[in-house]
TrEMBL record:
The keyword Ribosomal protein does not apply. Its main location: other. The keyword Acetylation applies. Gene3D superfamilies: 3.40.47.10. It comes from Cricetulus griseus (Chinese hamster). GO terms for cellular component: peroxisome. It comes from the Eukaryota. This is acetyl-CoA C-acetyltransferase. It is an enzyme of class 2 (transferase). It catalyses: 3-oxo-(6Z,9Z,12Z,15Z,18Z,21Z)-tetracosahexaenoyl-CoA + CoA = (4Z,7Z,10Z,13Z,16Z,19Z)-docosahexaenoyl-CoA + acetyl-CoA; 3-oxohexadecanedioyl-CoA + CoA = tetradecanedioyl-CoA + acetyl-CoA; 2 acetyl-CoA = acetoacetyl-CoA + CoA. Pathway: Lipid metabolism; peroxisomal fatty acid beta-oxidation. Its EC number is 2.3.1.9.
């Protein structure tokens, strides 16, 4: 019946997602604590490496995931694991299962792997589990859609699913009037905030240093320890950003400077019922009140959060910034998508821990 209601909602032009985690409206504040609350109790991540050139360029995703799993799960027993992974090697769940065993998690703990593109990590969290997300963009083949039906050429929406992300960025900028200057200014602010946070040691507690092996240009092996994000560029200036050429089309506004870098990394977030967290004496960093998933046109897929965020807030009984006198607060104070530049899917899991803090 629930699935039927969701389908009917789409047909009626109301593509709101499941209400399974709806909270009671609370205009005067958050609901009172409940023993059944889903709470965030812990989270760790690897540094974010530069794909193809950084410290993780030769490190497989199962090794990256194992590093954060081992750090998070040392003293906690889990009943279920959920992993978000966009660029899935092998048969999808194989990589996550390997990482599970590399972290000495017993085979009796079941596991699933989720791919909701850039929201994979967040979807893993929404599924209520020990949620993880990992990507190795260095070792993954990008730009190949694989075996798809030839009929997609006959369907505009289906055909649009193959549009590269850089072009969808250009489409969003053109349709919504987002100038090159605005994009560069946002990128500069992101870099400045990330650099400030990194210099103050704000990421130190959440980062798991990873010792791994890289190959130089001559094929020689070298052992390195990666302990901080490689995508932070403190020397970024508006003048420098303005000199960069469009990366995806002539006359475009999306450049290497105002885009997120391609990256490697992993993150894990531990969730529990409030009653279990209190029983184990675990810290409660935040409460999962709601989530939302929406569908948007594939040629402007980047607008998804602009529709999903209000839907999630409505379920939680909260107001959007600026609505009904609700004051605005700066979002993502430690950086953002541009810097440190997490890979697809990982940003949401990492942001979940930041939001809880």
């Amino acid at each position: 019946m629930h699935r039927l209601q969701v389908v009917l909602g789409h047909l009626a032009g109301r593509p709101e997602s499941s209400s399974a985690l709806q909270a009671a409206p609370c205009s005067a504040g958050f609901p009172q604590a409940s023993a059944s609350d889903v709470v965030v109790v812990h989270g760790r991540r690897t540094p974010i490496g530069r794909a193809g050139r950084g410290g993780f360029k030769d490190t497989t995703p199962d090794e990256l995931l194992s590093a954060v799993l081992t750090a998070v799960l040392q003293d906690v027993r889990l009943k279920f694991l959920s992993t978000g992974n966009v660029l899935q090697p092998g048969a999808g769940a194989i990589m996550a299962r390997i990482a599970q065993f590399l972290s000495d998690i017993p085979e009796t703990v079941p596991l699933s792997t989720i791919n909701r593109q850039c929201s994979s990590g967040l979807q893993a969290v929404a599924n209520i589990a020990g949620a993880r997300e990992v990507e190795s963009m260095s070792l993954s083949e990008r730009g190949n859609p694989g075996n798809v039906s030839s009929r997609l050429l006959e369907n505009e929406k289906a055909r649009d699913c193959l549009i590269p992300m850089g072009i969808t960025s250009e489409n969003v900028a053109e349709q919504f009037g987002i100038s090159r200057q605005k994009q560069d200014a946002f990128a500069l602010a992101s870099q400045q905030k990330a650099a400030r946070a990194q210099s103050r040691g704000c990421f130190r507690a959440e980062i798991v240093p990873v010792t791994t092996t890289i190959l130089d240009d001559k094929g020689n092996k070298k052992t390195v320890t990666v302990s901080q994000d490689e995508g932070v560029r403190p020397s970024t200036t508006m003048e420098g950003l303005a000199k960069l050429k469009p990366a995806f089309k002539d006359g475009g506004s999306t450049t290497a400077g105002n885009s997120s870098q391609v990256s490697d990394g992993a993150a894990a977030v531990l969730l529990a019922r409030r009653s279990k967290a209190e029983e184990l004496g675990l810290p409660i960093l935040g409460v999962l009140r709601s989530y939302a998933v929406v569908g948007v046109p594939p040629d402007i897929m980047g607008i998804g959060p602009a529709y999903a965020i209000p839907a999630a807030l409505q379920k939680a009984g909260r107001l959007l910034c600026g609505e009904a006198g609700n004051p605005c607060r700066e979002s993502e104070p430690p950086g953002g998508c541009n810097s440190p530049g997490p890979p697809p899917g990982l940003h949401r899991g990492k942001a979940g821990r930041h939001t809880a803090q």
